Amino acid sequence: MRTVPIRWTELETAFERNSPDTESFVNAKTGEVVTIVEGQPEAAELRSRVIQGGEGFIRIEPAASREQYRWMERFVVSVEDEALRERLVISIDGKGAFRRFKDVLLNYPAERERWFSFRAGLLHWHMQVWVEREQIEPAEPAPWGKVEAPEESDVVLERPAATGEGPGELLRRQAKELIDQIPAVELPAAIAFLDFLRERGAADLGRVRTMPVKRTAA
Q1: Under DSSP, is residue 26 helix (H, G, I), strand (E, B) or coil?
Q2: Domains in the chain, number
Q3: Whole-angstrom Cα distance, residue 99 to residue 104?
Q4: 51 contact partners, CB below 8 Å, separation of at least 6
Q5: Which residues have a Cβ under 8 Å from the Cβ of 21 and sit 6 or more positions away?
Q6: Which pTM does this prediction carry?
Q7: Which of 64, 94, 89, 61 shows the shortest CA–CA distance to 75?
């Protein structure tokens, strides 16, 4: 075991950064977290510093994308609001799942806060396992204390029954649900924005129809 003055906030940020062009390391002597992002001007200098430091730097292993996706699945299963659960199931299907999932929760502040707490617990458990595996003795304990191992269970998401809705109809239904949740005082602004989008769409369509057709020589 080696004692490391871990900077918990920096370490937590590094564990959240899961990107193929990003690597993070902890300086075992100072606790500083060094993050290298390929393509940035200082990337080569930072990498050289880490290489020269040898075993003095410990590589951070953030939670894999697949693991973080499982966190979302586990959270969705715990949502009691049937309509919200259905929207979340739809949101995490396919590319862009993380962004869509967050967008849906923006309209449910209580569940959004519960997600932050739920995710933090799983992230801190992942960090704790890493610290133990690397045989690190923190100079100071984590501010959130010792984390209990999460319950391991197979997540089975019930996909919404097929309704025959196309992508457009599904989006329109979701938009109507959002309108129902907007406070009355905000409805004039929402309606004005929707009018703007409708008029812009009509104008764009008109331009397409009036564009001259290019004829090619036979």
Answers
A1: strand
A2: 3
A3: 9
A4: none
A5: 37, 38, 39
A6: 0.70
A7: 89
Are 99 and 45 found together in one domain?
Answer: no
Q: How do residues 152-203 score in pLDDT, each as one tens digit?
A: 766 666 665 555 555 556 666 667 767 777 777 778 888 888 888 777 766 6
Q: Report which of 8, 3, 4 is spatially closest to residue 120, judged by C-alpha positions.
A: 8
* DSSP one-letter string for 102-147: HHHHTT-HHHHHHHHHHHHHHHHHHHHHHHHHTTEEESS--TT-PP
Q: Are residues 23 and 70 in the same domain?
A: no
Pairing of strands 136-138, 2-4: parallel
**Do 24 and 33 touch, CB atoms closer than 8 A?**
yes
CA distances 120 to 13, 63, 177, 186, Å, are 11, 12, 29, 32
143 part of a folded domain: no
Find out whether 89 and 156 touch, Cβ atoms under 8 Å: no
Task: Domain of residue 74: give its range.
Answer: 65-138
Tokens standing for 134?
């690397």
The verdict on 81 and 132 lying in the same domain is yes
Q: What pLDDT score does 218 carry? A: 47
Find, among 19, 10, 11, 9, the residue nearest to 134 by Cα.
11
Helices 65-78 and 97-105 cross at an angle (nearest 10°) of: 30
198 shares a domain with 173: yes
Q: Look up residue 95 and give its amino acid.
A: K
Q: Which one-letter DSSP state was computed for residue 22?
A: E
Tens digit of each residue's pLDDT (9 = 90 or more) over 93-116? 888 899 999 999 998 999 999 999
